[in-house]
């Protein structure tokens, strides 16, 4: 009898301990226990408002999804990104996500990740590797489409004139997917009419400072500039300073088209200093966390997930500004 009671008490105590552990574990992790994964994220840098918003989105959604995030900033240098990826491989993270600063030169390190059986997700920017088995999926915008939208706005704006339209172009980081693709998409659309002439085109590395510097040089070398196409808002904002410094009125003397639609860009559009912005959403975090959990579980995911986005005129920017999230 005594023995039976003791056994019962012991069993009850054990059950209580187990239950306590269970609930304690759930509260402390705050997420579905089994789903807890570790992600190594190799970010490009902090070159633009877009990038800052993207980093915030990734960090916040990792927290919300209970994903342990190891984050690194490559300061726009491929060698730093490769180092970061190698260290994530060494640390045996469950999944590696990265936004490749340039398109080429990733095969070796991606092969190392594959050999270590760590799935890789490309976010925001693509690589040009022939072997698509080196990564599970690519989440991000269609940059060719963005360039086309920018070109189409220009074609519509100048449809009633036959006069030459002199365009200068501020390209993104040399060799990056958004710079290559936005240039290509824009070029394809404006090629339909020979009156459109790109009279100067140079990289501004997606930064405000470089945008200003290169626009200064463009203005000195070219007496008649009708249009500026900048591959992102930040370079456009830098260029506005150069244009005002040269005594010209941005948005009037020189029409400006940019891409991203970050807050400062949208403000300049609403203020009439930019004429048109093609949206590129940096809010990739929630989808990235979902895809990561799936690939870690070995589930099938689509090879390409394209971000939905629109474009804004000055009037539309005034409407949209109060509710913009970045
Ligand atoms: O447009 C630019 C950023 O890769 C889409 O990178 C991204 C681009 C974005 O620096 O502002």
What structural keywords apply?
Rossmann fold; 18% strand; alpha/beta; single chain; six-stranded mixed beta sheet; disordered N terminus; 326 residues; binds beta-D-fucofuranose; six-stranded parallel beta sheet
| Helical fraction | 40-55%
Helix and strand composition category: alpha/beta
Q: What letter string, H or E per element, gives the SSE order?
A: HEHEHEHEEHEHEHEHEHEHEEH
Instruction: Note the overall shape.
Output: elongated
What does this protein look like?
This protein has 326 residues and is an alpha/beta fold. It folds into two domains: 38-141 and 282-308, Rossmann fold; 143-280, Response regulator (Rossmann fold, 3-Layer(aba) Sandwich). It is 46% helix and 18% strand. It has eleven helices and twelve strands. Helix 5 (143-157) runs parallel beside helix 6 (177-190) and helix 7 (208-221) packs across helix 8. The N and C termini lie far apart (70 Å). Mean pLDDT is 92; it is low at 1-32.
Summarize the structure in short.
This protein has helices at residues 2-29, 49-65, 78-90, 107-115, 143-157, 177-190, 208-221, 233-245, 263-270, 285-297, 314-320, and strands at residues 38-43, 68-73, 95-98, 120-123, 137-140, 165-171, 196-203, 227-230, 255-260, 276-279, 304-306, 311-312. It is of the alpha/beta class and 326 residues long. A six-stranded parallel beta sheet has the order 2-1-3-4-5-11, sandwiched between helices. A six-stranded mixed beta sheet has the order 7-6-8-9-10-12, with helices on both faces.
